[in-house]
Amino acid sequence: MTNGRAMQREWRVTGMDCGACAAKVRGAVERLPGVTEVDVALMGERLRLSLDEAQTSAEHIEKAVRDVGFGIAPKGAPPERPKGGFILPEDAFAEGATPPEADAEGAGAPAPAMAAPTPWWHSAKGRLVLRTGGLLAMAWASRLIVPAEIAHWVFIVATLVGIMPIARRAIAMARARMPFTIEMLMTIAASGALVIGEPEEAALVVFLFAVGELLEGVSAGKARDSIRALSTLVPKTARLEQGGKIRAISAEKLEIGQVVQVRPGDRVPCDGEVIEGISGVDESPVTGESVPSLKEPGAVVFAGSINAEALLRVRVTKASEDNTIARIVRLVQEAESARAPTERFIDRFSRIYMPAVVGFAGLVAIVPPLAFGLAWSEWTYRALALLLIGCPCALVISVPASIASALSTGARNGLLMKGGAVIEAAARTTHVAFDKTGTLTLGKPRVTDVSALTGSEDVLIARAAGVERGASHPLAQAICAEAARRGVDAAPVSGGRAIPGKGAEAFIDGMTLCVGSARLAQERGVLTEDLRARVAALEAEGKTVVIVLLDDAPQGLIALRDDPRADAADAVAQLHALWISPVMLTGDNARTAQAIAAGLGIAQRSGLLPQDKVAAIQALSQDARVMMVGDGINDAPALAAADIGVAMGSGSDVALETADAAILRNRVSDVAGTIRLARATMSNIRQNIAIALGLKAVFLVTTVFGITGLWIAVLADTGATVLVTMNALRLLFFRPTDAPAPKVRAA
């Protein structure tokens, strides 16, 4: 709820082919009373707004959208076919559709491919192309067998038949107080051509416009298909274990805690935990990782991944609407609303561009004849051609088409970016700051050395495990794991608390038991020279050292090592090749940090508390564009402080929902892949803008000088839109993890 009575409502709008279509939908509803916060997503086919139904009903919203020629249906309902629209069949990807119950043999099988698109000749736009094309061909043929006067009327009939549906839509737009639309410009241009005695060219213009509209619809559908395909990764049915039997049910009906069977070759129907079986699972549909991941009891599996080898029994851990695939689809769809600054500028520019061109066309029509006595028919013809150049469709779609393709490509490769603003920020990145533990390293430290100063090593480990029991920090878990490996029970303690950035402490037998860093021991004045030398020797080997204190008396040392990820050094090299400066931010001591950094070839800043990391990011951001990469939990403040925060994690809630971007595969090299994809997207956007404005500018000049006419002007409009969309679709084939690194520094 946004105010006293306004509620957020959402619909699916079908028939939108370009940015101008989205503007028409927005214009149709945003002036209605009680309507605020209008958000129209072209690629997501979504209309979302805040509505005070005391002033305007939901039915009135739907009528307003239908009146301007689009289909509209409430969220979750089957899509509505617009009048004259071009969409896929209603059952191709109806949201919320529940598949029929299948037999057990088919449960968990790969989801069927999406239904084939409606043949273009069955759509209203396709029929209009065939009708106008047939009449145009008939008119040309008639010139060979009938007098020119009769053939002249055949061209007029062909024009009128083709322009009638366009004119009806133009009138509907004008009633909605949107007079400057391509439909209105086409109607004026074709009618004007008839008036000045150019029916042949008028008929050709109407036919070319119909072809362009059809191609726009096909291109927009292709751009959406890759995003919609994500939702088909999850199988429709699951093999549920119930009462000692296997029963096939809809995957959407699975409940948390239920157990399903996943046979070799089946897709996993849910996010869950393996409780029985060992098998390789292909997670490439979810994370983009091509190498199968070994799953055994206790391992996490994702909905949509493919079981490759042996039968697995999986316990459901998330409802269908919250599984990884569902969250990725929602993220990609919602990302369209986070528009890039470039897109917002283009949107503002296009609102000025069309009226300006229409005004210029009016001047071209009247000034030369009135001021210089030139022929009215010739300059009226040139003005009509200029009108067709005034539509900004290609310009408006130049950014969202590229963004949608990039989001889809990223999702397929395990790289998620939350909208155009994030893509633009990633493309401008000059520095990348990495957290160490869990990001550059595996995040699974292991105890390498135990040195007891008093008592036995087992007693030392038992006391340390007692303090660290229940803690989520990787070092704490490693100490507890070492105690379990040795078969040592954790010492009973009470009143445990964390000492941020330094360690933890608790009480045992009335004494204070502390497990902390050498810095904490120094602050408490108990770091002797001998102890300092031992710590230094271990840290020089790249190990992290903690000291166990009992009432501030040193009891011993525990050294741990967290090995770098296999691809960390290569990832740093890739960033250097992209002319990006990487730096490691860590709370570890200088010697340990230097040992890790030297092996990776990266700069480092050590001994940083969480607030110190934020300060470091802020300092870097003063004269650089900084990307922060962390685990999405401990590094949340630093992620928020950076220009763009990237969370690593295989589909975790935090990784998908808290940062600006997420890397689903735990591969550091995907950071460079994210930047490559962002740069390729911005390059594609610049190409699209150049195509859109370049063609308009060329034909604006040639039309004024009489070099080109009406039919060329139509090609300048619809042809540019199709070219821009097809160019954007090239990003669907971009491989961000394989692309060669650019040789020039980013702007």
Written account of the structure:
The protein is an alpha+beta fold. Among the domains are: 7-74, Alpha-Beta Plaits (2-Layer Sandwich); 237-322, Calcium-transporting ATPase, cytoplasmic transduction domain A, CATH 2.70.150; 446-561, 3-Layer(aba) Sandwich (Calcium-transporting ATPase, cytoplasmic domain N), CATH 3.40.1110. It contains 24 helices and 26 strands. Strands 14-26-25-24-15-22-23 form a 7-stranded mixed sheet, sandwiched between helices. Strands 6-5-7-13-8-11 form a 6-stranded antiparallel sheet, with no helix packed on it. Helix 6 runs parallel beside helix 24, helix 10 runs parallel beside helix 24 and helix 23 packs antiparallel against helix 24 (710-729). Residues 84-106, 109-116 and 741-747 have low confidence and may be disordered.
Q: In the CATH hierarchy, what is the superfamily of the domain at 446-561?
A: Calcium-transporting ATPase, cytoplasmic domain N
Top-tier CATH class of the domain at 446-561 = Alpha Beta
Strand order of the largest sheet: 14-26-25-24-15-22-23
Report the uncertain regions.
Answer: 84-106, 109-116, 741-747
Based on the structure, what is the oligomeric state of the protein chains?
single chain
DSSP summary: helix tally: 24
Strand content: 15-25%
Coarse shape: elongated
Mean pLDDT: 81
Task: Tell me the CATH architecture of the domain at 446-561.
Answer: 3-Layer(aba) Sandwich
CATH topology of the domain at 446-561: Calcium-transporting ATPase, cytoplasmic domain N
- Span from first to last CA? 42 Å
Describe the main β-sheet briefly.
7 strands, mixed
